[in-house]
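Pilot study result, target chain (140 residues):
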Amino acid sequence: MLLVEDDPGDRLLVEEVFDEHGASGNLVSVEDGAMALDFLQRRGEYAKAERPDLVLLDLNLPKVNGREVLEQVKSDPELTSIPVIVLTTSSSEEDVLRAYASHASAYVTKPLNWDELSGAVRRIGEFYLDVARLPRRPRA
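Predicted structure:
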């Protein structure tokens, strides 16, 4: 699983929730869109990275924004099957429409309250780790 989040507090919260779920060993965090694309496309320091089976993506990122990351992931035949969950502070209808038009699997607006955010992340994890069947990761 790949978490693309520039806010250290939000990263920590997601990591804690997935740790409680027993999935933290499979969680990799990066803090900007350029790092996310390098990781997903196995470039540079991420040349040997294992492809994630799920991406949690913030939209408002430095270097390459989350909208561009989503569009590149979903236009790459090797990456397009990876579910991408947009997890962002933006509640803009334009962002929601654009994310789904770019084939996001879900769009979740981050609640401002820490407990509500923790609950939202927990529900995402429960659904995608326990309920949904994800595509198998391609072999290197």
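One observation from the pilot: Helices lie at 8-20, 33-40, 66-75, 93-101, 114-131. A full batch analysis is planned for the follow-on phase.
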